[in-house]
Amino acid sequence: MKNAEANAGASPVGEFDYVIVGAGSAGCVLASRLTEDPTVRVCLLEAGPPDTSPLIRAPLGFAFQGKNSPINWRFDTVPQKHLNNRVCFQPRGRVLGGSSSINAMIYIRGTPRDYDTWAELGAEGWSYKDVLPYFKKSEHQERGESERHGGSGPLWVSDLRYRNPLSEVFLEACRELQLPLNDDFNGERQEGMGFYQVTQKNGRRCSSAAAFLAPALGRDNLLVITDARAERVSFDGRRASGLSFRRGGKTEFVKARREVILAAGAFQSPQVLMLSGIGPAAHLKEFGVDVIHDAPEVGGNLQDHLDYIALRRTRSPDTIGMNFSMISRLPGAILAYKKRGEGLLTSNLAEVGGFLKTDPALPEPDVQLHFIPGLVDDHGRKQHLGGGYSCHVCVLRPKSRGTVRLQSPDPMAPPAIDPNFLSDDDDLRRLIKGARMVFRLLDAPAFKPFDGEQLYIGRDPDDAAIAADIRNRSDTIYHPVGTCRMGSDAKAVLDPQLRVRGVEGLRVIDASVMPTLVGGNTNAPSIMIGEKGADLVKAA
Ligand SMILES: Cc1cc2nc3c(=O)[nH]c(=O)nc-3n(C[C@H](O)[C@H](O)[C@H](O)COP(=O)(O)OP(=O)(O)OC[C@H]3O[C@@H](n4cnc5c(N)ncnc54)[C@H](O)[C@@H]3O)c2cc1C
Fold first, then answer.
1. Is 505 left (phi over 0), alpha (psi -120 to 50) or beta?
2. 479 lines ligand 1 (CB under 6 A)
3. What is the pLDDT of residue 513?
4. 62, 94, 460, 480: which is deepest, by most CB within 10 A?
5. Strand locations in 315-384 (E)
6. Is the per-residue pLDDT at 318 higher than 60?
């Protein structure tokens, strides 16, 4: 369908300097930073509603955002060939704050080497030395400012105000196994085990919307439209000139004087690009989309952290889940949270974990662990009565690559997501080694008093049994990136200034720009991309 036709009859919302699609981790930063200049007018479109639910602000509330939540896109993948053809789950935030409103709040940047690799691969200006100032700019580190941490940014990074006794047991098990300990994974070295720092302010979730957007909402030069789903970018010749979007069953149109910026995340930024005629030409033609620019790599290079979970039952009264002890603790927990921003409700569940090497000769950790004092099965969609604990392990720099494609020319349809998990055998080999480390930890003496039945797999599994369990149950730990790769080569979707190659006035600024997945959780890197992206836009 031609863009001109798509916009016929659409009602104009007005004209802005910049139109941003998606109020997620990166989009909120962009809207806030660009409107610091009062002469610049910005329109921010978000497909989801405002972030008013108390289950967003209360950290433990995120446990309820998986199964049927209306603020979660709840995407399915295509059947995964190397995971017994299972359809995997891909939750994503669909609300102001995007995925930062439903995530586990862990603040991790990855390692300096991750960013130096980006620069080596052609993302000029994105080495660690280049991006560190942007991490620091956004950060309000509760422990104070330092060489590696910012002290006066809007994004609060705090120590957890609650530590579940089972999380302490996990750390004791790490000590017993003489694993290195680490109290700052974003400091001098990443390797080691410890409590994570979280994006929380006074015990409340500090999403990108809370940190960046809320303080900017009063500005006259910012219009935020919620429940507005971008359909496609429109062009004047090869220049992006605006965008059509759906609101309340009607198509509307907004004009961009300077730029349209896609910040719709690793699945939907490439989807909007393809719907707008920028993507692999043959694929677009298949869906009747007029090709504006043949960009074969749009939607390619999808990378994600595949995660395996060991689950054990326990009689410990400290377990979090569907059990009597939890119910009896709730009234006190609600009071402590409301009065002082403390207690169980400030838990992010994944309180403790860390980064390990599956081979001591490696230059840096290649697996990450998250321990949860509850039974987390199938993203919390499968409930178990009683108590337990779970330990996740994921491969940090997977070699498998997948795709995001259209499955319909209808912008309301979900994209076809194929992470192609375990298409590279090296990922499986590392995940098996990581699972072995997890089993060793859960078998450590510290856990003995709490130890119960292990679900799904026997106590002394060989590699084949672990591989079979991985294929049966592993799934994402929610870090898809890379589908609009930046780089200096002609094939890269974006140049290092995050401009879409082949057209003008169009950028992508979110997790999809990463050339390679960083070794860690991806919220802080997405926020950093928003910070640096805003400066690149301002400098144009
Ligand atoms: C359950 C879960 C737990 C996680 N836990 C952690 C964690 O503890 N720590 C961590 O660092 N990372 C975590 N992550 C990952 C991290 O939150 C994401 O990597 C990061 O938020 C991605 O930022 P983004 O800006 O690229 O996209 P998003 O934050 O997902 O934002 C995209 C926004 O665009 C909107 N949008 C999409 N399409 C359209 C459209 N067509 N029109 C209008 N709006 C649109 C979406 O609704 C969304 O608001 C987690 C993610 C999930 C889902």
1. left
2. yes
3. 99
4. 480
5. 352-356, 367-372
6. yes
Q: Round to whole Å and give the CA distance between 28 and 191.
A: 31
Q: What is the pLDDT of residues 295-306, one digit of tens each?
A: 999 999 999 999
Is the confidence at residue 6, as pLDDT, over 60? no
Ligand 1 centroid, distance to 510 Cα (angstroms): 9
| 3-state per-residue secondary structure call for 392-415 | EEEECCCCCCEEEECCCCCCCCCC
Q: Is the pLDDT of residue 37 over 90?
A: yes
φ, ψ for residue 496 (rounded to 5)? -65, -10
Question: Which residue puts its alpha carbon closest to atom 9 of ligand 1?
Answer: 106
Ligand 1 pocket, residue 392 CB under 6 Å = no
Rounded to an integer, what distance in angstroms lies between the CA atom of residue 502 and that of residue 509?
17
Cα–Cα distance, 136 to 149 (Å, whole number): 5
What's the pLDDT tens digit per position in 478-527?
Answer: 999 999 999 999 999 999 999 999 999 999 999 999 999 999 999 999 99
CB of 523 within 6 A of ligand 1: the answer is yes
Element (H, E) at 324: helix 324-340
Pull the structure tokens for residue 383: 């409930």
pLDDT reported for residue 92:
98
- The pLDDT value recorded for residue 11 is 58
- C-alpha span between 267 and 156 (Å, rounded): 27
Q: Whose CA is nearest to atom 46 of ligand 1?
A: 94
Best mutation site among 246, 523, 528 for ligand 1 pocket (most ligand atoms within 8 Å of CB): 523
pLDDT digits (tens, 9 = 90+) for 423-474: 999 999 999 999 999 999 999 999 999 999 999 999 999 999 999 999 999 9
In degrees and rounded to multiples of 5, residue 104 shows phi and psi of -90, 5
Alpha carbon 39 to its chain centroid, in Å, reads: 32
Q: Could you tell me which of 196, 207, 210, 211 has the C-alpha nearest to residue 162? A: 196
Residue whose tokens read 């669909």: 94
